[in-house]
Amino acid sequence: MSSTTTYQQMEPYSFGYQRVSIDKRYDKPPVIYRGPDVVENFISHLLEEEKEIRDILSRIEPMIITEYDKLDYKYAKKCYVCKKAFSSKNYKVKEHDHVTGSIRGISCNNCNLQIKIPKFIPVVIHNLKGFDANLIMSKIGKFKEQDITVIPHNKEKYMSFSIGNLRFIDSLQFLNSSLATLTKNLADEGQKHFNYLSKTFPDPDVFSLLLRKGVFPYDYVDTEQKLEKPCLPSKEDFFNKLGDTHISDEDYQFAQTVWDKLKVKTLGEYSDVYLKMDVALLADVFEKFRDISLHDYDLDPCHYFTTPGFSWSAMLKKTGIVLDLITDIDMMLFVEKGIRGGVSSIFHRYAKANNPYLFDTYEPTEPTSYLSYLDANNLYGWSMSQCLPYGHFNWLTEEEKIKLDIIKLKADGSDGYIFEVDLEYPTSLHSSHSDFPLAPERKHIQVEHLSPYSKELLQNLTGKQCLTKIEKLVPNLYDKEKYIVHYRNLQLYVELGLKIQKDT
Fold it and tell me: Which of 37, 199, 467, 468 is the most exposed place for a label (fewest CB within 10 A)?
């Protein structure tokens, strides 16, 4: 059972952000604000940034054509966007960046006309959905003159929301790790990737020191007066109540070094430094992610909300696949019926091995037994790397069904199949398959279906001898009727002893 417990009331006292542009002329130093009405000021600052950015984007820079661009144009045979050959009707043109003026590639005229700068301006916040969104949404009603749209995750959390042309997205939806871990991973690749951190802290010694996530006494700072403290709080004051953890000696030493190296005078100034670090580190980490994505897929994560959406576009772009839409309602229901979800089981919770390798507990007079731990990792990723259906969905004719030999179908063949079959589960297999029966089904479990052990659990845990009328996906040893199954699963079932009585 899940629940929400009120832990503490969070009152923001500062914010920081870093403006990032493809043209470094338009970059700015990080903006740090500490004072009253933090959320309102944060939104107001961003709306001012929006005005500046829209003004920049409204100006079209003239083309900057290099000698390389001239040669590229002369010898280009196909569009760098759609990869199609040029023609007299769809001729080649120089496609250039309207912000920088540089030539991005030689495209066909059709693609050139379709490439546009999006109207929205992404605002990237790490763990937006889990934390910052609640603070922003609590004050968003004060900006009634702005169009506000949301993409909710549930009643409490938002996947994304927009204020005017500002689209707030969560970097944690793409980079599912803490900023500390992401920073460490990027630092392992070299200091050259930290462009914004080096600009924010140009002193080489300070820059090298700050190539990691900072530490801050969040629980200690419960009043504004504590920000005026002229010294770093004690190590004990860095205790995190929510996580019930202390910081390490190494982390506290790092905080002391930052305080001394940057000549910090108050805890408020230390907070500003900490925030500058966070903003610069997130900018560098996410820009590196964008660089990789643009290089590998020609796609910008800032145009997406989550990794699945980004991955879907990458798949379509890389494979060139055109997905057919199933328009036959019977066919769609047929496929849906074969999607069953996860298996429900009652597991044996405790087992004890007894074999000669267990020197301390081995009992020679007892039966020998072993425990085997089996775990299959990344099943979803594995399944997505198999041959997947994309089109030409058709019902088989009676003649095609007669000619088809299910067992001889190839796993990597050009055609795949979904069957509706009647399956016999021979009684000779019941003993060997009882731990994990094949071909699970959605069933409403009756009390008479339960084993004596399960009945005992039901009585002990609920005091009842009845079950809720909810269908569960359960492995069982019954024969199956009109069972819808993918052909590769069906081949496995037959190989392991099940018998096909009828297929339709």
Answer: 468
